């Protein structure tokens, strides 16, 4: 079936856009996996579900984009109305999902500090008795080279000794490591909150930027697909 010259141009533009969609799917997939892997050690420090669901949504969307791109390419080349409509519907659903992740990323950008402070203040008291809390604080203080929430004084404020992970390196005296004190070499003087907040904010901005940016590109694909589908349907009706 032949279509008009204008719609023929749209047809090949749609085909080219699908190659771009496959590339954006790969970008979404990589960003989702990277954020999931990097935020995993600290994800329990916030009660915001966005930091667990956001990366997963992007990973799922990235995989689906490859499938959707197949429908778009086949539909455009074969001028198949049904496949192009299916492509447009899938793409619209993906657009909404990415838009939601993007908006949530920028909204949660402002909420993360209160969430982290609330969680750390609640759990720091359980450090001596709860192995999971102990492991979380130890990983945090070791990886980010920090101590306490706002600073080392948080441990004393909760009538707790300073953990060993507040020191980067300690001397070995008589076969045992020296106690970690503010005078110890490599003592972490910075609170963990000042390092955690920028870390999560960067994650939120990245998820939001990728979600919104690629969603805008894919919206063009929906428009092209709808135009081509309408043209093909019109050709069928005139035959």
Structure description:
With 239 residues, this protein is an all-alpha fold. Helix content is 70%, strand content 2%. The longest helix has 46 residues, at 193-238. The N and C termini lie close together (9 Å).
- Rg value: 26 Å
Order of helices and strands: HHHHHHEEH
Percent in strands: under 5%
End-to-end separation: 9 Å
Q: List low-confidence stretches.
A: none
- The total count of helices amounts to 7
Side-by-side strand order of the widest sheet: 1-2
What's the main sheet like?
A: 2 strands, antiparallel
Task: Briefly characterize the structure.
The protein has 239 residues and is mostly helical. The protein is 70% helix and 2% strand.
Summary keywords:
239 residues; mainly alpha; two-stranded antiparallel ribbon; 7 helices; 2 strands
Q: Layout of SSEs?
A:
Blueprint: H1 5-39, H2 50-78, H3 81-108, H4 112-123, H5 131-143, H6 153-157, E1 172-173, E2 176-177, H7 193-238
Antiparallel strand pairs: 1-2
